[in-house]
UniProtKB/TrEMBL annotation, chain A:
GO terms for molecular function: phosphate transmembrane transporter activity; serine-type endopeptidase inhibitor activity. The chain crosses the membrane at residues 6-23, 44-66, 125-145, 166-186, 226-250, 270-294, 300-322, 355-376, 423-447. It comes from Thiopseudomonas denitrificans. Residues 227-443 form the ABC transmembrane type-1 domain. GO terms for biological process: phosphate ion transport; response to wounding. Pfam families: BPD_transp_1, DUF3708. Part of the binding-protein-dependent transport system for phosphate; probably responsible for the translocation of the substrate across the membrane. Belongs to the binding-protein-dependent transport system permease family. CysTW subfamily. It is found in: Cell inner membrane; Cell membrane. This is Phosphate transport system permease protein.
UniProtKB/TrEMBL annotation, chain B:
The lineage of its organism: Bacteria, Pseudomonadati, Pseudomonadota, Gammaproteobacteria, Pseudomonadales. GO terms for cellular component: membrane. It comes from Thiopseudomonas denitrificans. InterPro entries: AAA+_ATPase, ABC_transporter-like_ATP-bd, ABC_transporter-like_CS, P-loop_NTPase, PstB-like. Residues 19-261 form the ABC transporter domain. This is Phosphate ABC transporter ATP-binding protein (PhoT family). Keywords: ATP-binding, Nucleotide-binding, Phosphate transport, Transport.
Amino acid sequence: MNSTMLAIILLAVTALAYQFGLLRSTRQGRTLAREQVHSRPVYHAAWLAICCGTPGLLVLLLWSALEPLLIRNWLLASWPELLGGPAETAGTILMRRLQELAGGADNATALELAAAQQLGQLQTWAALGKTALVALASAGGLIWAARRMNATFKARHQVERMVRTLLLGCSAVAVLTTLGIVLSMVSEAFNFFSFIRPSEFFFGTKWNPAFSSTGNTHGEYGLLPLLWGTLMVSLIAMLVAIPLGLMTAIYMAEYAPAWFRDMAKPVIEILAGIPTIVYGIFALMAVGPFFAAAGELLGIQVRATSALTAGVVMGLMIIPFVSSLSDDIITRVPQALRDGALGLGATRSECIRQVVLPAALPGIVGAFLLAFSRAIGETMIVVLAAGNSPQLHANPLEAISTVTVSIINQLTGDTDFAGPQSLVAFALGLTLFVITLALNVIALYVVRKYREHYE
Amino acid sequence: MNTTQNTQPAGLQAPRAKMQAQDVRVFYGEHQAIKGIDLELMENEVIAFIGPSGCGKSTFLRSFNRMNDTIEGCRLEGRILLDGEDIHAADMDVVMLRARVGMVFQKPNPFPKSIYDNVAYGPRIHGLARGRGDLDDRVEDSLRRAGLWDEVKDRLHAPGTGLSGGQQQRLCIARAIAVSPEVILMDEPCSALDPIATAKVEELIAELSQQYTIAIVTHSMQQAARVSDRTAYFHLGELIEVNATDKVFTHPQNALTEAYITGRFG
Ligand SMILES: Nc1ncnc2c1ncn2[C@@H]1O[C@H](COP(=O)(O)OP(=O)(O)O)[C@@H](O)[C@H]1O
Ligand SMILES: [Mg+2]
């Protein structure tokens, strides 16, 4: 029986256990006074179901994880003569071949056929064993639980505890995954630094990674041109996004009538949901050529794919981000402050400029920082529209490259993660991660501080 | 309507009406919060507005400097006059109106600025001061009149939000009088203050009444009795009774007023 079937049957059995628990505890409780019964029947039933389903599920998962490994080791040990090379790769190839044969293929040697036959047999046994063990575990859990169950049993507490454990488990997965990602990045980055000295990476001003085929030098891995590119594009983006986003937020929070706000806010938020690749295409097809043509009219040399193009489009992308965060923060400024200013005869715009915005400033700065960190990590727009030229120069009309673009460049094509050419991606990723993390932490701190101030 | 509005406080000779509300009706969308009120605020008097909560005291008070304009969906019918001029007239500028009719709110609401800048805010936006020295004088004068000068003169540039609640409220009063208003509207100015701070603010109101016309909403009848010359009792958006304060509290003319001040509801 395969695992999917088994899981479905297990689920059905669990449901039956639930019904059984419901019936049984209702019957048990009937003869007792109300205060003698601790938990309502649903809790008894849930407890029974959990006790029955969980062990079976765990056994199933464990078995499924271990089975291929055990069978493989067994086979390789029994048929060493079939192994043509080192156990690592040849083993995998052999296993694939045997699987095919077991599934019914011809043109095989007798030895191979025998091994394939053994594989089939092993798999049959394994399936049997799995079914038996799962059934045993479930039945055991069910019987154990059913024997403990009586009217005074505190099933409610047990169920609550299990729910808590489950939730804890789920959040642990999220946290541990993050931790795992960071750790693997760190270790690969260290790997990279065994090829290139950190000082060469962090302070190098030349980015020119040579691919291994071009000789035995690794090339140059200076971070600064990329970091500078990232910074330049992000700054241009912020120059676009801050004024437009902030004005939008002010209009939405202070001037727009309710019906308009209700209509426009979702529209703005939809902008935030457009995939960035679409913005990238827009930059490449529309904005870049437009800038180039405009430059030509003015007699200035403007490249279609440049820091300016990428920055402006990225700025457009961030506007909804800036505006909805700032809007929240401006709305949170107490009405009492506005009343105070208006009551003194301030006009609406004086009130906003002199009282509301200063009061909201820390929060708004926080919003800007979050938007900035978003810009720094943005990839698709710059891949398409920044021109990919890792040079240290200060001309926004020229092509440039960024950290994210370089990561993509280093990882596309044939990569083996043995040389610095691809390992550098981890060092770059880690650098980016640290920068955005720092920005986010500062921003969240500032925003939180601001909220405490007014709530 | 059974409004009783005859007796003037004794001892005042030929008092002049500073502001007049004539058949004022205020609506929040469909809901009518004020149902046709006539009332005069006399020059240099302190008039207290009392009544159960939700009866429209704040709404009515805010009508006098058009603060209700800032609320979406709020609409006023009827007329309100300041020195005989309609405050809703086309040539009446709301900025000027609010400079003449100032307001102090329920919760102290100093701006997130220094004490000095809080008080200087009004004079600055109205361009009342000629030069720095003049502004300094105005700030000092306002703080003195609000009885706060001695407490803050050494930290004028500290944030206004760092003061205690009572000090903040007096700062807000100083801020209101810094633009030399003629009328000051106060909406439960002591409801967020402790008894000592309340006493200070009440003292201040008594002093200010020599120079300004003051309308004060209060939920404390003792406070109304202590600070006001006249008291107006509101009920469900109507003005039930207005009379000299001691009359209202000793011989209420209306059964509703009596029920309220004897604590049968509120
Ligand atoms: N901003 C508003 N929007 C809608 N209704 C309001 C608003 N403010 C007050 N009201 C309504 O108007 C009535 C009078 O309120 P208010 O003037 O605040 O009473 P008071 O100050 O006497 O407690 C109440 O019924 C209240 O629900
Ligand atoms: Mg009120």
